[in-house]
Amino acid sequence: MKCRSFLGVQAMSSMKIGYIRVSTEDQREDRQVDLLQPRCEELHVEKRSAVGQSRPVFEAVLAKLNRGDTLVVWSLDRAFRSARDALNVEANLKERGVNLRIVSLGVDTATADGKLAFTMVAAVAEHERARLSERTKQGLAVAKRNGKRLGQKPKMTPDQTRDALQRLADGERMKDVAWSYRVHPQTLRRHIDKLNIPEDA
Questions:
Q1: Which of 4, 25, 80, 143 could link 148 by a cystine bridge, Cβ 3.0 to 4.6 Å?
Q2: How many domains does the chain have?
């Protein structure tokens, strides 16, 4: 965990705690630090992809927030995996009496207008994500109808697989046949299994 603390007014009853994320060790967090530092008593920096299995710094920040505190982030994508993730986290924070501030959007859920704005922004982002998924599926369907092959090119052609099968039947070892086609034996076995699947299976 990388944590930077900045002390403001002494003996504050509530805290504004900033969370900053960059996706890789090579990326710099300086810009987010400059933007959030004047607004926060503490800043916590995490260098990890948002879609990773765990985000230990983010989880630690959420755990330490108390009633009356505010979680401050620069943008939705810097803190949340998706709009749905943002809505879920905000709902949890709300139950605990913790506010959420998204600086780039001017959203602060401490106010009624801020709560409404956050809900609308997250809903629009989720809608855009769903529309993108729909367009991607439609594009794949069109490509498939037009006879374009989707996905990775097979390592062996059907003719090569049939030839390999014949060589195996003639007594050659699986390993030797596979290496002659520059593939792993398991790859050859998968191609043979596919070749032997009936047409109506």
A1: 143
A2: 2
Residue 183, domain extent: 158-195
CATH of the domain at 109: 3.40.50.1390
**How far, CA to CA in Å, does 4 sit from each of 1, 19, 43, 145, 194?**
10, 10, 5, 54, 56
Q: In one letter, which amino acid is 140?
A: L
Q: Greater confidence, 9 or 59?
A: 59
In a domain, 139, yes or no: no
Write the CB contacts of 49 (distance below 8 Å, at least 6 apart in sequence).
23, 24
- Residues 2-14 have pLDDT tens digits of 444 444 444 457 8
Using alpha carbons, select from 132, 26, 22 the residue that is nearest to residue 74.
22
Pick the closest to residue 195 from 150, 158, 160, 167 (CA basis): 158
Catalytic residue among 5, 13, 14, 23, which? Answer: 23
Alpha carbons 24 and 43: distance in angstroms, whole number: 18
CB atoms within 10 A of CB 75: 14
